[in-house]
Amino acid sequence: MLGIRTARTSRTRLLAAVATAALAALTLTACNDDAGDAGGKGTSANSPAPTAPPAASAPAPAAPAPAPATGAPAATGAPAQTGSPASAKPSAKAPAAPKPPSLADGKAVTCEGSVTKTVAAPLTRPVNHLLLTVTNTGSAPCYLYGYPAVRFGEAQSVPPVIEDSKPQAVVTLKPGESGYASVNLSATDGSGGHGRTETSLAVYFHGPSGNESVGAGSNPSLPAKGLYIDDSLKVSYWQQSMDDAVTS
């Protein structure tokens, strides 16, 4: 009898232990489920703090519509105008006054009495010589061709030219410039014939051919006492410089 009770008591205890273990397992499972739910809602102290997602960029505002143009659009990159408006134009200049033909075309003419002034000056060195100076008084260049055709008093012919005095080129005078020639009046040793004193002089100018006189002549003044001349009278070619004329 005692053995039967002991066996029942042992089995009862075993069943109680199994029930207790099963209840403990159910309790543990329920705790784990609660912990999982809590972990989804909270943040563990050892877990890194979640990074906040970047804020979405706000859309750029649309550019305002351009105001309607009131004039011509400015050129891209053009500097700002600091003076009068572009539409302003300078006033037109008055037309230039017409120039004289000789100055407008600039063409050279032949030197002659109407566009020149001639001066006659006796020289002390060399002796018995006269210097002729012709100055261009016109508005265009002029050419002094050949040599001066001189006439003293009532002479019917002109004296010969000194051939050795011929220049390399025709003498050209710009307005205001001068050309020169010398006149050998008489022989220094008195060997010349038909000596006489003259108080008037006429100078004529040659053209390109050198055989004719052109334009107006000139009548330069001579000393009041006149000049002594003889048959040895001769002239030099026109020269560009006074020195060349005097030494001819």
Structure description:
The chain is of the alpha+beta class and 248 residues long. 20% of the residues lie in helices and 24% in strands. It contains 3 helices and 11 strands. The N and C termini lie far apart (189 Å). Residues 1-10, 14-19, 23-92 and 94-104 have low confidence and may be disordered.
- How many angstroms separate the termini? 189 Å
Helix/strand/pairing category: alpha+beta
Shape, principal axes of CA atoms? globular
Helicity level: 10-25%
What's the SSE pattern?
A: HHEEEEEEEEEEEH
For the report, how would you describe the main beta sheet? 5 strands, mixed
Mean pLDDT rating? 74
| Fraction of residues in β-strands | 15-25%
Number of strands: 11
Low-confidence regions: 1-10, 14-19, 23-92, 94-104
The total of helices stands at 3
Q: Mind telling me the C-alpha Rg?
A: 65 Å
Indicate the topology.
Layout: H1 2-41, H2 101-105, E1 109-110, E2 116-123, E3 129-136, E4 142-152, E5 171-173, E6 178-184, E7 196-198, E8 201-206, E9 213-218, E10 227-229, E11 234-235, H3 242-246
What is the gist of this entry?
With 248 residues, this protein is α+β, with helices and mostly antiparallel strands. Helices cover 20% and strands 24% of the residues.
Features:
5-stranded mixed β-sheet; 248 residues; 3 helices
